[in-house]
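Protocol check, entry for the methods section draft. Step 1: assemble the input record (protein sequence plus ligand SMILES). Step 2: submit for complex structure prediction. Step 3: store the structure tokens unaltered in the notebook. Ligand used here: pyridoxal-5'-phosphate. Step 1 record:
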Amino acid sequence: MPVMGNMSLKPEKKSGRRATRAKPRESGRRAAGASKLARWDKQYVWHPFTQMREWENDVPLIIEHGKGAWLYDEHGAKYLDGTSSIWVNLHGHRHRAIDRAIERQLRKVAHSTLLGAASPPSILLARELVRLAPKGLTRVFYSDNGSTAVEVALKMAVQYWRQQRPPRARRREFIRLDAAYHGDTVGSMSVGGQPLFHRSFQDLLFPTHAVPAPYCYRCPLQLRFPSCGTACLDPLEQILKRRRGRIAGVIVEPLVQAVAGMITQPPGYLARVRALCAKYDALLIVDEVATGFGRTGTMFACEQERVTPDLLCLAKGCTGGYLPLGATLATDRVYEAFLGTHDDRKTFFHGHSYTGNALGCAAALANLEVFKKEKTLARVRKRATLLRALLRSLAREPMVGDVRQCGLMAGIELVADGTRAPFPFAARMGDRVAAECRRRGLLIRPIGDVVILVPPLAVSERELRRMADILLAACRRVHETRRAPRR
Ligand SMILES: *Cc1c(COP(=O)(O)O)cnc(C)c1O
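Step 3, stored output:
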């Protein structure tokens, strides 16, 4: 999962109001261990989406434990988890019900394969996912992360068309949005549009058709919603028409393109994509890896546009942020294209060592149970309303160009004062705001100059207010010192 880079961070030295260091007295023995760990981290670990040269010169944040919306480093300093540990945690860290479900499963078996055998947690979870997913999605194929959930959907789509009678093997092209992000494997990168992440691999990626993202703040057509009539979708129809009989599927994130910078889609957008796919008989692949499991205020974002995709990709929040688990859901229509005799060779030849992992499925079942018990969705909607109000004061800051929110995911786009001009890449304003937040006890991870806030769904009102206060203070601080050379 992306982020641009790590900023040089001095160890926290403030005390008093801003300090979050809970137990400075304990520092003696633990700090000695900590520095050893920090040394070994730099010596042995290669961190994702991280410039390791900078990391090596930095004091690494080593999270030792967590509780609820809080994470604690090895020195005892505590931080609000403003990224939900990169968009996966839902009900807080160390939630009793999920902890227990994993412990219970552990006493039975940690893992057994789904190749040639079944397992209770994977069966029960599949049934539950089908019950909760948009009507029409009836089959669950497991994998272990978001990239593989997308990979599986792409392969299913291509093989689906090959196995039509008569075969429609020419349908093997995909349409995706500009700035799309669907994962880091070669297939999922191919349907992505993040030049910074993908440029080294361009020659490896299969070609796809890109259509404009509905980025209203920087409208690619220089129009305004709603008078534009969502004209950015016209190119989608044009490609579907021009490449008639060659498009296997259209892949989109529903309601919000998260990694693209929380680009929220205008109402009706997804439903129109659905209608166009139906009109030109292309499969609709909806990637709910970020939006799924309550993030947007409904269990799945598709529901808000009354859309059933042909393939639905899930991961991140699937286990409540406990264990890696991905799932690709398919309709009967897709599934049935794979049925035949052994000699027909119509089998979906795909699977991972840990497909349908029992611990992961048990955690996912407990996760869904918590949604019911704690009425999570109702609370998310309440918190989302509060967050909207809290972000209003942030929107008035001179450096804030646009505030975009969908449920409990928010992006704050930083721009040079009073303009829509982006800051230079080297100014790293997003990273600077994140560094200020960390000093004040909030962990966030920006995407370029879009400051991202994705709190756990279980965040309390107080915690959410605190997150917003820290964000505001950090933005002001960075604004005041923006011309000063970075420390
Ligand atoms: C995070 C993400 C992915 C990739 O998931 P991983 O588990 O990191 O491989 C794919 N699609 C979307 C929309 C995502 O947000």
